[in-house]
Every structure is written in C-alpha cells, then in structure tokens.
Amino acid sequence: MSKAADLYPSRQQEEPQIIKRQDPTLYNRNFSNAPLSEAQLKQYERDGYILLPEVFSKAEVKRFLAEMGQMEKDPELLASDAAITEPSGNALRSVFQIHHNNDLYARVAADPRVADIARFILDGQVYIHQSRLNFKPGFSGKEFYWHSDFETWHTEDGMPRMRALSASILLTDNTEFNGSLMVMPGSHREYIACVGETPEDYYRESLKAQTVGTPDAGSLQQFQQRFGLSSTAAKAGSVLLFDCNLMHGSNSNITASPRSNLFFVYNAISNQVVEPFSGGKPRPEFLASRETITPLQSPAPQRKAG
Amino acid sequence: MSKAADLYPSRQQEEPQIIKRQDPTLYNRNFSNAPLSEAQLKQYERDGYILLPEVFSKAEVKRFLAEMGQMEKDPELLASDAAITEPSGNALRSVFQIHHNNDLYARVAADPRVADIARFILDGQVYIHQSRLNFKPGFSGKEFYWHSDFETWHTEDGMPRMRALSASILLTDNTEFNGSLMVMPGSHREYIACVGETPEDYYRESLKAQTVGTPDAGSLQQFQQRFGLSSTAAKAGSVLLFDCNLMHGSNSNITASPRSNLFFVYNAISNQVVEPFSGGKPRPEFLASRETITPLQSPAPQRKAG
C-alpha cells in the first residue's frame, strides 16, 4: 500500500492534528436482525462504546479467573515475550495472544454473545487482531495513559481502516476506586494525529508505559471539554464493547482489589493488516495477527443443546 | 521522652503489627457549644473524617487559585526545598509551609470556619504542624499510596499522641476521575506498625513516592475488607477534615482536570513534637514545625464587621 493511501497519518508531523473519521462506526443498519436492540446499536454508534451488564455468569467468571491463576504460576509463559510485567517490579500486567495459546480463552473469543455483535457492527466475518489478559493487580496497578487503539494499530501494525472493535470482559468488579476504564464518549469520530517518531522495537517499552503515539495535552484538553468523561465501572461478567478509535485510559489502582479483564480485538476480515504506516517493521505476531488470520467460527447462535 | 513511652512504635520490627488506638478521636463532647452539629461530630468520631460541602465561596476559591498561579511562576520558590516536583518531570507536586511563607494562605489556616472546628475536636489551642499546597496537575498527577499521616509524624517528627487532624480545602472539583482522596472509614481506630527502617534524609524521596512507612499488603487487604473504601469527591470550596490516623490514599490523575488543594495539619499545643521516635534526626522545619510553634489566633467567630 502506497503512502498516498494513508487516511490516518500519525507521528509524521511536528504539530498534532485532528482529522475527521473517514469510516462508519456501525457498518450494518439492518436492525431487524441484530444481536442488540436498535437503541443499543445507535448508542454504540453515537458514543463509540456500550456496556453490557453481566453477560457472563458468575460461574463462567470463576472459571476464567481460575485459568488466570494457573497462568500466573506458569514459568514458561512468564518467561515468554507475551507476558508483560508492570513498569516497576515483577507483577504481571498483561499476557497477550490468549486466543491462540489458551483453549478456554479461545472459546471465549468466539463466544456468540460477543462475536455475533462484532460481526454485526463490522458487517462481516471477523478475526482476532490482538488479545490479552490484563491483570491490573491490586496495590500496584499503574495507569494507562489516554490513547486511541487504532492510532497504534494503524501506525505500528498497518490496520488500514477503522473497522475494528474491542471487547473487554470484566473478570473482577470494576469500580470508581480500582482504575476502571475512562472513556470520552463520541471521541471515536475524530482522530488525533500524534507527534513523534516511533522508535524501533518500541512495543517492548510501550506495553508498560506508552509515550509515543499518545495525544498531546492540548488536543486532550480540547477533547475532554467537548466530549466529557464517562466511567465504565461495572460488575464482573459485564462486557464493554468499544470502537477502535475511542479515546480511553485508566488511572492507577492502589486498592487491594485487582481489576482484571479479558480483552479481544475483533477486526473485519476485509480490513486485515498491510505494512505498518510508520514505514517501520511490523510488531511481533503476539501483538498483531499477520500470519495467522482466520475468520472466527462461532457455533450457530440459535442452536440449543438436546 | 524515653523509648518506653512510645505508644505507637513503627518501623522497628520485622513483622507488621496492628495496634489499638490509645487516644480519643473527639476530645470535646460539649456538643451544645460546638461549631458542628452533634450528628456531624459523632460521624467524625465514628468514621475518622467528615466532608463539609462548599465552605469557601467561589470567589474565595478563585482568589486562592490565582495565588497558586503566582507561586508556579516564582523562580525563588521553585528552587526552594519547600517545592516538590512530580517523580518524573518537573511538574510541581506540592509546596510546603504555606502557612508561614504566604500571607493569604496563613489567613486561610486561621480561618475560624476551619480552625474553630479543629480547636473543638482537639479541645484546646492548636498550631499548624505542617501545611502544603498540592497541585496534582492534570495528565501527570501520580498516586499517593495508602498511609496514615500519624505514622510518619510520630516516627519521623516525634508527634507523641493522636491529637491532630488535617483539613483539605479543595481548590478544584474532586471527582471519581481525577484522583480524589480515598479513605477507609473507621480505620483511624487502629494503627499499623510498619516494617522497614527509615533511611537518613528519607523525606527527599518520600515526598515524591513513599515506600518506607507504608503499610504492608496483608494489613491493607484486611483493612479494606473490614472498613471498606469511601470516596471524598466534592466540589471546589469544600473542606475534608480527617483524623491524623485515618488510612487514606489516592490514585493517579490522567484527566485534564487538576486536583489541587490546600492542606493544613492542626495539632494540639499540648501535643507538640518531641524527638523523632525513629531515633533519627528531625525532618526540616518546612515539613514539621518544631522551632516556630505558636497557637493559631483566629478572629472571634461571632464578631461581625460594622
């Protein structure tokens, strides 16, 4: 793909720039056959996110957490590139590519309660661009600074268009106290072209604390004034779905309560990655699917056991 | 004062210990002549804090903020020991001893709307043990980890008993988003003896990020389970009064909205500092009044102008 085709240039200029979104948010408007109500889908389109309370049962969440507990004790996993620790200390921050290296979480990624909505909103087959388990441990969980995921996926991974969404499946209660995700509703309709070149192999650092590819203070101040802030605090088992370009971030967590979640990025098959728009080398496979792109197969949603 | 008289030993043992409070919280129970209602005072006694909404007017807050703006531009002040920057970068985090080096803030410290309550609760004359202006700037404000102020004042400053309280005067709206103070209601009735010796001149580091004199994770987990967490989010101009031994902390602030406040520690004259119970040398005067202890003089609360 030539440079001319870059609709969302970033990290290329000396001054930040705000660019209008060139893509739909809601790709399918056939509301009569949708996995969410028309009101919910229009809310998603307007705000760039929707919170679905307690989609997964307490028993399911318990099972997911038990699996997480196993992963924390797996020395091979801990030594792998896919395991990221907190900026200071050795507390586990994230494990990537869980749709690939873990059977249970692979099934969750394909669960029709989430995947059907992704297929509807993006109007077609989807695959997992990135997945991770976020631990956000108690006492020492650090903040994630404001960012649009798409800015990174476009610049560092080569995702061409805004035709992807994230599902965050809460494994613990997210409260105002333990660093629940903050979002700027409606911010997904504008794109902040960031300042600063991407260093080589920047992902090693940015997964712990990102500085390049984050918006400047002036743009963020303007965004906060225009869009405001919303909390996404919710009970364990709830699902937060949000557009790839929604501005979001979270504060630290000094409470004793971990803020853990499963995170899956659904990308339209038609929107699979090309060469990174930064011109740099692509990030490793565990951060961005490139070699292993297969449409998600979910069981037919209507089929019942028995 | 001999070591035997240390009712609240800390940083002396290898294992943390929880000690019952040996002192009253509310020293005066003559409710008929009190600056707060009996219900409010009993709430303070039970919870260890009380939030008084919008005590200072918008105009007063504006004046306080303008003064703060001046201080941020004062090169002499910025170069002084009393000015503390954020752990990374040069953003101003706190300025100490403002009751001493700033006329306006000195008047605020003595304002009867706050000082009368301090005198009532502590039952007698009071002086300012410590004062500061906290900036908690937008985007980059870091967390304050859980701690009891008294633990530090006792160990590092030699404050003998729990007969002090803090007043935090909010200069900006404190919300669930910008790192408002979290407290554990009722935790002031117990004292966590912390682990770890105090390094010499430790204050230089601890004012940016404290690690010694903070409770261990086990004790905090137990405290959170027993006492729970409360938010103290409130509008600018509100005053949070809290006991010297209340467990409190705050998360980071990545929003564009600063979380600034004036902070005054009222200590009973009868409770003035002795030698530090750590056995180390005392912290400098700008952190703990030792040489300059004078009872606060407030104008008589009933006297009206004209």
UniProtKB/TrEMBL annotation, chains A, B:
Stated EC number for the protein is 1.14.11.55
Q: Which Pfam families does the UniProt record give?
A: PhyH
Arranged from A to Z, the UniProt key words for this protein are: Dioxygenase, Iron, Metal-binding, Oxidoreductase
What residue spans carry the region label Disordered?
280-306
Recorded hits in InterPro entries, A to Z, give: EctD, Phytyl_CoA_dOase-like
Cofactor dependence is on: Fe(2+)
- Composition-biased stretches, type Polar residues, lie in 291-300
Q: Which reaction does it catalyse?
A: L-ectoine + 2-oxoglutarate + O2 = 5-hydroxyectoine + succinate + CO2
Gene Ontology MF annotations:
2-oxoglutarate-dependent dioxygenase activity; iron ion binding
> So what does this one do?
Involved in the biosynthesis of 5-hydroxyectoine, called compatible solute, which helps organisms to survive extreme osmotic stress by acting as a highly soluble organic osmolyte. Catalyzes the 2-oxoglutarate-dependent selective hydroxylation of L-ectoine to yield (4S,5S)-5-hydroxyectoine.
State the family named in the UniProt similarity comment for this chain.
Belongs to the PhyH family. EctD subfamily.
Assembly mode:
Homodimer.
- Its recorded name reads Ectoine hydroxylase
